[in-house]
Amino acid sequence: MVSGMAKRKVTYSLNATTVALAEQAASRAGLSTSAWLDRVARREAVRTGIGPARRLLADAGPADARLADALLTEARLDETERAAAEHERRATR
Questions:
Q1: How many CB atoms within 10 Å of residue 1?
Q2: Which residues contact 89 (CB under 8 A, 6 or more apart)?
Q3: What is the Cα–Cα distance from 39 to 41, expressed in whole angstroms?
Q4: Which of 9, 58, 72, 89 is deepest in the core (most CB within 10 A)?
Q5: Residue 82: CB partners within 8 Å, gap ≥ 6?
Q6: Is the pLDDT of residue 68 over 70?
Q7: What is the Cα–Cα distance from 65 to 74, expressed in whole angstroms?
Q8: pLDDT of the residue at 43
């Protein structure tokens, strides 16, 4: 996520085993569970082609240069996340 981009507090219901696995994985990664879930949810969304940044950039047009810059940064991050997810997928085969 781009520094300064808004975060929204939400509540989800997760299977107890999923929570335990996420907490363990987050700990191993040196992240909070929330940060880890944010990272893997984004990575999976981008991996499956749902990443929003390119679509938002196309819709924004050149009217707001700061927004366009932020969206370009997000689009680059999407590509980085997609590549990392693909690398991980190949490594686990």
A1: 13
A2: 47
A3: 6
A4: 72
A5: 43, 46, 47, 51
A6: no
A7: 14
A8: 77
Q: What is the dihedral of CA 77, 22, 47, 45, to 10 degrees?
A: -80
Burial class (CB in 10 A: 0-12, 13-18, 19+), 68: middle
Please report, for residues 11, 32, 33, 82, the alpha-carbon distance to residue 72 in angstroms, rounded to integers and kept in the order given.
29, 27, 27, 15
Q: Which of 58, 47, 59, 37 is nearest to 83 (CA)?
A: 47
